[in-house]
């Protein structure tokens, strides 16, 4: 992580964000996902809503590890859906019903797939 002395000034951050917005404005298929908003919400343990699913206040801090930088496994699932939601808003042809919008279900399916793949790998190594 950056120390306080290594952090860019407020003016520098504002200029960078302005340049990013200008760049995105010329590219209709590009979306910006506001990670800082996600981080502020979970660090404050406030409610987080996405696509009709709400993680209530007091339950969102678990999405970030104790280092206050990296997401936990549920945080990764939530971020993945947040990114997909931003992508879907600008993409055509992606059926909303084709996505599990519940982060807990996404995480559970991913973990189950991982367990199955590991079991298959062990069987191949030990016939």
Description:
The protein is globular. The mean pLDDT is 86. It has one domain (33-125). Strands 1-2 form a two-stranded antiparallel ribbon. The chain has four helices and two strands, in the order H-H-E-E-H-H. The chain has helices at 10-25, 35-43, 73-90, 103-125; strands spanning 48-50, 53-55. Helix 3 crosses helix 4 (103-125). Helices cover 52% and strands 5% of the residues. It is mainly alpha-helical and 127 residues long.
Would you kindly provide a brief summary of this structure?
The protein has a two-stranded antiparallel sheet.
Features:
mainly alpha, 127 residues
Gross geometry: globular
Q: SS-based structural class?
A: mainly alpha
Radius of gyration: 18 Å
Q: How many domain modules?
A: 1
Series of secondary-structure elements, N-terminal to C-terminal: HHEEHH
Instruction: Note the beta-strand portion.
Output: under 5%
Main β sheet profile: 2 strands, antiparallel
* Residues in helices, as a percent range: 40-55%
Number of strand elements: 2
Tell me the distance between the termini. Answer: 45 Å
Residue windows where pLDDT falls under 50 for at least 5 positions: none
- Calculate the mean pLDDT score and round it: 86
Strand order of the largest sheet: 1-2
Number of helices: 4
């Amino acid at each position: 992580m950056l120390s306080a002395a290594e952090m860019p000034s407020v003016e520098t951050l504002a200029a960078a964000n302005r340049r990013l917005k200008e760049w995105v404005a010329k590219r209709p298929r590009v979306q910006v996902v506001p990670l800082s908003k996600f981080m502020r919400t979970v660090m404050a343990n406030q409610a987080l809503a996405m696509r009709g699913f709400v993680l209530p206040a007091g339950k969102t801090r678990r999405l970030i590890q104790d280092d206050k930088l990296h997401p936990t496994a549920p945080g990764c699932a939530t971020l993945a859906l947040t990114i997909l939601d931003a992508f879907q808003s600008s993409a055509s042809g992606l059926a909303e019903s084709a996505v599990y919008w519940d982060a807990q279900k996404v995480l559970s399916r991913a973990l189950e797939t991982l367990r199955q793949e590991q079991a298959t790998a062990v069987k191949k190594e030990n016939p």
